[in-house]
Amino acid sequence: MGVAALPASLVPWSRLNRRFMTIGLSDALAYRGTFILGIVFAMIPLATSLLLWLAIYRAGAVGLSIAGFDLHGMLSYYLVMHLLGLVYVVEDVQWDVTQQIRGGTLNSYLMRPISYCLVQWDLKMAAVLVAAVIALIPASLVVIAARSILVLPAAAWQWGAFVVAVLVGIQIAFLLSLCIGLSAFWFLETSGFLMAAFPMQMILSGSLFPLELLPKPVYAVVGNLPWTYMTYFPLQIWLGRLDAAAVARGLLFQAGWLAALLGFSTWLWSRGIRRYEAVGG
Questions:
Q1: 69-76 contacts: CB < 8 A, separation 24 or more?
Q2: Which of 19-23, 199-203, 242-246 is least confident?
Q3: Inter-residue contact 175 to 261 (CB < 8 Å)
Q4: For residue range 144-171, what is the model confidence (pLDDT) as tens digits?
Q5: pTM above 0.70, yes or no
Q6: Domain range list for the chain
Q7: Is 14 within 8 Å of 8 (Cβ atoms)?
Q8: How far is it, in rounded angstroms, from Cα 279 to Cα 242?
Q9: Do 170 and 88 touch, CB atoms closer than 8 A?
Q10: Cα 219 vs. chain centroid, distance in angstroms?
Q11: Residues 75/145, Cβ–Cβ less than 8 Å
């Protein structure tokens, strides 16, 4: 039992893939109420972080800088990181893939002339599109409410680089989650690993705190991992903490990690599906 190798199935905008993208859009829109409710509840940790850092800076000396962040920079960091988190809705692919492998529902995909991994991409990118549209509302409110403290990109090229970095970062996040999910081909119990992976991804991507707060030797290692290029690198561009040369190097690193993860996920799938078929999946 294998996947039929049709050239059209490997093209994202083929007829079958457009159909799955439409299904993904329908599913995302069906749960838009849940997403909006998630935005509301996500404001609680955001407000806590902002109030905490505001108290820290007010208690310090005038012009206090922490890890190179002044007060406006630190508050902008958490505001923009929070907005990015509303759009990066691809982490649950690792749970979906694991459940389909363990539950046997993967078989229904293998009997169709489609690429399973590409179907997952279609579904998640549709969710990202819906999330981005819905997130425009809180994003607009944040910009209006925080306009006196929010740090914005100063140059047009920074805006462009930020958008590109975010788009590539979403693909990196998807592939990382996909690779974690594909590990279910080899492990009978992965729930503990999946639950541990999420907070680690939050830390390594800079979602919980700026990575510059880490000890320098640790930051030197973490700063080169793929998780850094999901959200942390785009945010560095937004805040103007990188010059044009550093941004260009970062985009090259992003492209390198994207290619490496694409190759690794392809390898995991090809090896895993042979194992799956061998044990009668």
A1: 69/210, 69/212, 71/149, 72/149, 72/150, 72/151, 73/151, 73/239, 74/210, 75/50, 75/146, 75/149, 75/150, 76/146, 76/149, 76/150, 76/151, 76/238, 76/239
A2: 19-23
A3: yes
A4: 888 888 999 999 999 999 999 999 999 9
A5: yes
A6: 7-278
A7: yes
A8: 51
A9: yes
A10: 20
A11: no
